[in-house]
Amino acid sequence: MHPRLFTIDLFGHHMAVSTYGLLVAIGVMGGIYLGYRNAKRVGLRTDDFLDLSFWGLVVALASSRLMFVLTNLDRFRNDYWKVFAIWEGGLVFYGGVIGGCGLGLYLMWRRKLPFLRSADVLAPMLSLGHAFGRLGCYMAGCCWGKACPKPVGVEFGQQSVVYENLVARRQIDPAVSSTTAPLHPVQLYESLGEIVIFTVLLHLATRKRTDGTIFFSYLALYAVLRSVTELFRGDAARRYLFELPIAPLARLLRLPPGEPLLLSTSQLVSILSAMVAVGGLYWLKRRADEATATLP
Predict the structure, then answer these.
(1) In the structure, what pLDDT confidence band is assigned to residue 87 with cuts at 50, 70 and 90?
(2) How much of the chain is in helix, strand and coil states, percent to nearest 5?
(3) pLDDT at 93 over 70
(4) For residues 241 and 291, is the Cβ–Cβ distance under 8 A?
(5) Are 41 and 35 in contact (CB under 8 A)?
(6) For residue 9, what is the enclosing H or E element?
(7) Quick check: 90 and 73 in contact, CB under 8 A?
(8) CA-wise closest residue to 116 among 55, 199, 44, 195
(9) CA–CA separation, 228 and 296 (whole Å)
(10) Could you tell me which residue, 15 or 246, shows the higher pLDDT?
(11) Of 60, 165, 202, 290, which sits with the fewest C-beta atoms within 10 Å of its C-beta?
């Protein structure tokens, strides 16, 4: 775990290059490159795709940060400038999806782009970028997991977000311990899951019958992944609609028995996303079957 790669001395000021920011940047650039190639392959105008990617990224970052800030106002009351320190972590993915999709819909309507075909191009790049983003979370020590026995558990050091957070909450005495207790590396779980989703989407892209299949498949697959990884999340930034501990499931997963497993805000959004995805895939299948039936 290395929150900072190195420090640059710039005109007497020390600027730290964060691993989180670098990995997010790599994921974004890799995703845009992949999307650009796919856009050319399926006949989308590349200028429109690049505009859509750029402004979608800007709005997604802003909206994901805004949702994090709104759900954690107590962390910023004494230092408002921290609101802009996204390189330290603190983005809510579903907030970015909502903001980015809203802007994407507007730009697609304004430029008369085919929505489902464009969404199919964007889905794999979103999955790839998110995989790198979660690696950045791991390196920064944010979005951490619940307590976990070794050898699976990971201990985060003094410069990590989780260590500083637990010290502030008086759950760690820095005079006694220089690391956290072993925690589930849930950031790596989600990153690996996103790579699997990315691979599945690339496979589906070679076999799809109609536009929209990739997009709705991504919604369904990520909804399942996020619902599962939420069970292992332990960071205090998460919010529950209601707290429901399930002792038998906690024992099965070797999680602390008293902590809630359901129902977080992200789990609710995942359920809604899954419903939209299943409905969308069913609608696409019906439309494809009807089109096949009308052929001579």
Answers:
(1) low
(2) 65, 10, 30
(3) no
(4) no
(5) no
(6) strand 4-10
(7) no
(8) 44
(9) 46
(10) 246
(11) 290
d(CA 160, CA 155): 10
What pLDDT does 88 receive?
57
CA separation for the pair 56, 52 (Å, rounded): 6
Question: Among 80-89, 137-146, 223-232, which range has the highest average pLDDT?
Answer: 223-232
CA gap 234, 144 in Å, rounded? 6
Domain boundaries, the chain: 4-288
Instruction: Mark 163-202 as b/e (b = at least 16 C-beta within 10 Å).
Output: bbbbeeeeebeeeeeeebebbbbbbebbbebbbebbebbe
Contact 146, 233 (CB under 8 A): yes
Query: pTM higher than 0.85, yes or no?
Result: no
Biggest CA-to-CA distance, the chain: 79
Burial of 93 (0-12, 13-18, 19+ CB in 10 A): buried
